[in-house]
Amino acid sequence: MSRFWSDLVHDLEPYVPGEQPRMSDLVKLNTNENPFAPSPHVLDAIHAEASETLRLYPDPQATALREALAAYHDVRLEQVFVGNGSDEVLAHAFAALLKHDAPLLFPDITYSFYPVYCRLFGIAYETVPLDDAMRIRISDYRRRAGGIILANPNAPTGIALSRQEITALLDEHPNLPVVIDEAYVDFGAETAVPLAASHPNLLVVHTMSKSRSLAGLRVGYAIGDAALIEALTRVKDSFNSYPLGRPAQAGAIAALEDEAYFQQSRTFVINSRERLMQGLAGLGFEVLPSSANFVFARHPARGGDELAAALRQHAVLVRHFPAPRIFDYLRITVGTDMQTDRLITALSSALIPETTAP
Ligand SMILES: *Cc1c(COP(=O)(O)O)cnc(C)c1O
After folding, report:
1. 139-172 core/surface letters (b: 16 or more CB in 10 A; e: else)
2. Ligand 1 atom with minimal separation from the 208 CA
3. What is the percent of the chain with per-residue pLDDT over 90, rounded to a whole number?
């Protein structure tokens, strides 16, 4: 704290990202990174940008990348916005579309960055409890609101809504901006992007951090009606005109070009998720159904904080959230089969004292 701080900074409660420690032989299953390298085609494209041209600013509109995304998702160029990771795209969406007199609605259990943006931008919000099965029930959103934001699949539960449910939500709230954060959609959920053509209130946000193994490059994007995209662009151009550098723009285009690699990598993650879920079930965990690259699980006899600490002793990192309804849960990223084996072995030894106690 310092007397030089603004009142705004005094009152902030920043988001706490999963830790990125430097430990040797670490099994890092705490931040939903992809266990596979990016496509070699992406690395080539980035290397090619490490040249004399770095002295020049990048294209502030990232037109080539937006064109590639428009073609990939079968939408028009004016329907695509790109940013420095989807966290930045989301921040612009909060400022541009989600600040109104009536409260913004989102689930009580969801991406914990949403309330952080609300405090930064002074946005009134209300949380809507998930049901007892930890699912989003769209009928619970029939109340006074200035906007709605949902992660689909939701995080950290991993549970997805169907496109039919998203359509119903959009139809029930034609006068509200509805943002669907699809950070994990490629791991088994249905994207809402095709609904953008018929629903001018829909903004869909994607990231290349998870399914494209590019968390370190910082590329996220949004798709929606041109008027919504224009709102994001107005905020972006009031904040930072060049959010994506040349290597990021080139690497992201190359990622879209290597469809075979993308399909192979996401299929592998989906299959490994099944293996991880079976391993956890074998140890007595209750595992929520997951459409993401992580699972959310709890053990009937042991606390989440206790298990996370025990795993840390074995250099296995998972995420634990010290929040009321989910205190018993662990969020575990789907890793390679070798990482899953290390996790399961560490968990079984962590569980032994309980099972052998008299
Ligand atoms: C990871 C994540 C993001 C942010 O991803 P970026 O790396 O900033 O693109 C956004 N929303 C959810 C729900 C996430 O889990």
Report:
1. eebeeebbbbbbbbbbbbbbbbbebebbbebbee
2. 9
3. 92
Residue 112 in tokens: 């914990």
Taking each continuous run of H as one helix and of E as one strand, the counts in the chain are: 11, 12
End-to-end CA gap in the chain: 51
Mutate which of 15, 81, 86, 319 for ligand 1 pocket (most atoms within 8 A of beta carbon): 86
Rounded to the nearest whole angstrom, what is the distance from the C-alpha of residue 103 to the centroid of ligand 1?
Answer: 23
Distance CA 186, CA 184 (A): 6
In ligand 1, the atom with minimum distance to the C-alpha of 87 is 8
Domains of the chain in sequence order: 2-37+260-352 (3.90.1150.10), 40-258 (3.40.640.10)
232 Cβ partners below 8 Å, 6+ apart?
81, 83, 89, 92, 93, 96, 97, 203, 222
Digit-coded pLDDT (tens) for 296-321: 999 999 999 999 999 999 999 999 99
What SS3 class is residue 88?
Answer: helix
Inter-helix orientation angle 86-97/113-121, to 10°:
50
How much is the mean pLDDT over the chain?
95
Strand order in the sheet with 286-287: 286-287, 294-298, 329-333
In this structure, what token pair is assigned to residue 276? Answer: 């991880």
Compute, in angstroms, the gap from residue 101 CA to the centroid of ligand 1. 27
Give dist(CA 281, CA 358) in Å, integer.
24
Cα of 89 vs centre of ligand 1, distance in Å, is 10
Q: Of 244, 162, 239, nearest to 207 (Cα)?
A: 244
Q: Which two tokens stand for residue 313?
A: 């002793």
Which residue owns the Cα nearest ligand 1 atom 15?
Answer: 183
Instruction: Kindly state the average pLDDT of the residues 342-348.
Output: 96
Which residues contact residue 109 at a Cβ distance below 8 angstroms, ignoring those fewer than 6 apart?
A: 130, 134, 154, 156, 157, 323, 325, 326
pLDDT tens digits for range 25-67 = 899 999 999 999 999 999 999 999 999 999 999 999 999 999 9
